[in-house]
UniProtKB/TrEMBL annotation:
It comes from Flammeovirga agarivorans. Substrate binds at residues 201, 319. The gene is metX. Its main location: cytoplasm. It is found in: Cytoplasm. This is Homoserine O-acetyltransferase. Its EC number is 2.3.1.31. The keyword Transmembrane helix does not apply. One of its GO terms (cellular component) is cytoplasm. Transfers an acetyl group from acetyl-CoA to L-homoserine, forming acetyl-L-homoserine.
Amino acid sequence: MQEHSFTYNNQYDLELGESLPEFTLNYFTAGKMKKDFSNVVWVCHALTGNAEVFDWWNGLFGNDCIFNEKDHFIICVNVLGSCYGSTGPTSVNPVTNKPYYNDFPNITIRDIVGSLEILRNHLGIDKINTLIGGSLGGQQALEWAVQQPKLMDNLIICATNARHSAWGIAFNEAQRMAIEADPTWGDNDENAGINGLKAARAVAMLSYRNYSTYEATQTDKDDNITDNYRASTYQQYQGDKLTKRFNAYSYWTLSKAMDSHNMGRNRKSLEEALQSIEAYTQVIGITSDVLFPVSEQRYITQHIPNVTYEEITSLYGHDGFLVETHKIAGAISSFFKQKSKKRILLSN
């Protein structure tokens, strides 16, 4: 994949009333784009994900995968608010010449999508063949499909929802409370709240996996153990692992953005927003997902006009959308075959 950077040198007004004097988006591409845009695959990444989709969605994206650079032009953008090169809380505010830190404005999913739309226009991409995303990425993809219903031919969303639930918001708030409890939180330093971020990630893991996952993978084999349990060290490991690649400011910002997701806001209704989607859509749920339960994906499926639905069985809960790549690839392959059959039937 090739790395690129785009800077929008104008004021960007945000949904909640604040603005950014400018913003930069860091993004990666792979493959060669056809003149008619018929091979454009645009990927929206999850909360702590990044634009290097060949790394974190390997098995779905790669040389021998359903999405590959031989057949497709693949693009993935590090979202606004992240810490992977796009403008976020640790970026320098051009007005003050100092990092934003706590002064970074609250952003919404719609703000993120708006920045993607600006980049798309800058790149001259008039059509997206397939827009795909999971979790926070799925929220972006859904919102974009409502804002620009004629832009994408195919929409694939996985382990996501049309409105972030009270359950999901509560999980995110518990994580932000952990960050707030860190005495360094709020310091003008990139490492502020780092221990709180470790605790937040440990809380998050409980929602990304589930009871069965932990029982199967983290149960101690020694019945006599009374401390340093495998599950305990796993939580510590996951917290440490995230702090090596992320910061508390971006985590805070993007968890707030996730909470903002409500496709019915300032529209007639949630249902009508979904009904306005024109893309041929595949909705994928993970049966063991406790953070984005399949009831949310089934709800989406009920209201999008041209849609198919697939449930993936997985031990890994919400993280199944990242782990079960071969199952998801199989579902997507069937989705495209079904679309081809529909075309043949219509032509006859």
